[in-house]
Write a structure and sequence with these properties.
Protein name: ADP-ribose pyrophosphatase
Strand content: 35-45%
Structural class: alpha+beta
Largest sheet: 4 strands, mixed
Distance between the termini: 35 Å
Radius of gyration: 19 Å
Order of helices and strands: EEEEEEEHEEEHH
InterPro entries: NUDIX_hydrolase-like_dom_sf, NUDIX_hydrolase_dom
Mean pLDDT: 94
Low-confidence stretches: none
Organism: Paractinoplanes deccanensis
Strand order of the largest sheet: 7-4-9-8
Number of helices: 3
Helix content: 10-25%
Keywords: Hydrolase
Length: 194
């Protein structure tokens, strides 16, 4: 069976902001005719499962205005520095949000966060061989990051937190489950960061 190739007939920008742009597209449908689809085009993001030598993962708790509460998450951030390598973005975000550097990096998973309306992707890295950022070199956090709670939780406990409904952030759920699976397979499924 041949797959239908959906084509965008028209596209109208509805909103443009610093992080995303919203378009209303008219798209050909495999059943015939066209349909309107609103699409959020986003810069994309990176996230980090930072795992220490005793199998604890670094988690942050941060206020998220869209859902009106603080969520347990992975250290993560937007791809907002032009030309910056994704692994370098991940390392920067880990240092800024969790005051941690890593000596070893692997690619864990790639995810589309909400493909029904957004093209946003997130690449999740596994960081190991962790060291603390020296006090004098720590990033000064502002806005909603000013009161980040940073903790380390045993990876198996973090998985239990997912199933108890305590970790609901999609990137954290995907990254933690992938890290646990990769660990259980002796890290054989990891990909190089390049």
């Amino acid at each position: 069976m041949t797959s239908f190739v959906h084509q965008t007939v028209s596209s109208t920008s509805r909103y443009r902001g610093p992080i995303f742009e919203v378009f209303s597209d008219e798209v050909t449908m495999s059943g015939g005719g066209t349909a309107k689809r609103d699409v959020v085009r986003n810069k994309g993001a990176v996230g980090v499962v930072a795992l220490d030598e005793v199998d604890r993962v670094v988690l942050i708790k941060q206020y998220r205005h869209a859902v009106g509460r603080r969520l347990w998450e992975l250290p993560a951030g937007l791809r907002d520095v032009d030309g910056e390598d994704l692994a370098a973005t991940a390392a920067r975000e880990l240092a800024e949000e969790a005051d941690v550097n890593a000596g070893r990096w692997d690619l864990l998973i790639d995810m589309f966060n909400s493909p029904g309306f957004s093209d946003e992707t997130i690449r999740i890295f596994l960081a190991r061989d962790l060291t603390e950022v020296p006090d004098a070199e720590r990033y000064s956090r502002t806005d909603e990051e000013a009161d980040l709670e940073v903790t380390r939780v045993d990876l198996d406990e973090a998985i239990a937190m997912i199933f108890r409904g305590e970790i609901t952030n999609a990137a954290a759920v995907g990254g933690l489950l992938a890290a646990a699976r990769a660990r259980d397979e002796g890290w054989a499924t990891l990909r190089p960061v390049t």
